[in-house]
Amino acid sequence: MAGPPPKPWPTGEAMTLEPLVRRVLAPNPSPYTYTGTQSFIVGAGEGCAVIDPGPDLPDHVDALMAAIGEEKVLAILCTHTHRDHSPAARLLATRTGAPVIGCAPLVLSDTGPRADAAFDRDYAPDRVMEDGEAMTGPGWTLTAIATPGHVSNHLCFALEETGALFTGDHVMGWSTSVVIPPDGDMGDYMRSLDKLYAREDRIYYPAHGEAVEKPRQLVRGMIGHRRQRENQILRLLGEGPRSAAEFVPVMYKGLDEKLHRAAEMSVTAHLIDLERRGLVARSDEQWRTI
């Protein structure tokens, strides 16, 4: 994971990325959110949609409202329901009267320390969008692209008029996405990457990090990176059984200890996928090749 750029970060400022797209950065930086969650406003003054309204922080909602101005909000769309993405939808909906649509609700009970944001337990959309379903407004069309893997309810949104894709946490502009079992699924994640690689999107706007101007090149590299990790796991298991935690010091040399849990869960996601494919097996906490 790359470190964040030097401060100051443009928190709360509405930045125009292209005629139909503005970005507002939330003040929630962390090792897992980079400089914070980026909310996007799609529209050109006659009716807009807000994608990933972000965490439940009044200052961020105020910044979104200032950026929207007198424009009518037609919809509030959420890529998924981690707490750095969807909670502000409720307050924004109250202030604008707009419906909340997009991903399906998803809540899992935490069984221990998390390595990513916890789920938004209060997310209650007015409508769930299916894969390929479109939402339209004055001069814009947003199509839902189902991309499970980071979490099972993850959606990306394609802006059909410009070839932009809002990728949420599935593809980020600063790091690979965290895949946390039991809901995060490495097999689904890889299939979703293949799905995006088959597309011809012009640019990606992730929820964390800078815009991705060569998306297919990045996705190809991400697929290759995951395959390298998989091969590394199989090679290490060839030396003998290991627990998931024992892979981390070898595979992630120099990694900040704050991120060790995330790395361990990513290894676990790979191991579960390899187990399903009949390449490895486990006994208690130990994994071995078959």
TrEMBL record:
Residues 36-208 form the Metallo-beta-lactamase domain. Keywords: Hydrolase. One of its GO terms (molecular function) is hydrolase activity. It comes from the Bacteria. InterPro entries: LACTB2_WH, Metallo-B-lactamas, RibonucZ/Hydroxyglut_hydro, Sec-metab_biosynth-thioest, WH-like_DNA-bd_sf. The keyword Coiled coil does not apply. This is MBL fold metallo-hydrolase. The lineage of its organism: Bacteria, Pseudomonadati, Pseudomonadota, Alphaproteobacteria, Sphingomonadales.
